[in-house]
Amino acid sequence: METQTDKINHADMVRQLAKDGNKILAELSPLKCHQWHMATGISSEAGELLDAIKKVVAYNKPADRVNIVEELGDLEFYMAGLRQAFDITREETLEANIAKLGKRYKQHQYSDEQAHARADKESPALPENAIEQSELDAVRERILRNNAIQNMMETH
Ligand SMILES: [Mg+2]
What we know:
Blueprint: H1 10-17, H2 21-26, H3 30-57, H4 65-85, H5 90-104, H6 112-117, H7 133-155
Residues 45, 48, 71, 74 line the site of magnesium ion.
């Protein structure tokens, strides 16, 4: 019996499924570019931090504390920028993290069994926290206004 995976090779599947870059480009906005920039920064700075830790763990080099602080700061920058882009406070993320891990671990105490069970993943993620386009537009307006104010302050 022929299966679905027999009918197409991987390269063709990728060509068919990868979204056309022109369509992505046509749907871009300054806010989406800002969100992408911040998210990309988090990923790249996490890689730089990982490299600093790799040198300690894999190569037995002394920890470069100055560099680790720098990379953590870079991560904080992009994380703050991404939170701003979605109008999310740091406190909100910390509270959500405490709540999630409180579901996963009774009394917030680690155990391998609870880590494997991942009790917090039992309920499906519902879009109740989805951000409406109008909210994103309002955030975009605030970013643009703040940028304009910052530009004015820098030129005076
Ligand atoms: Mg860096």
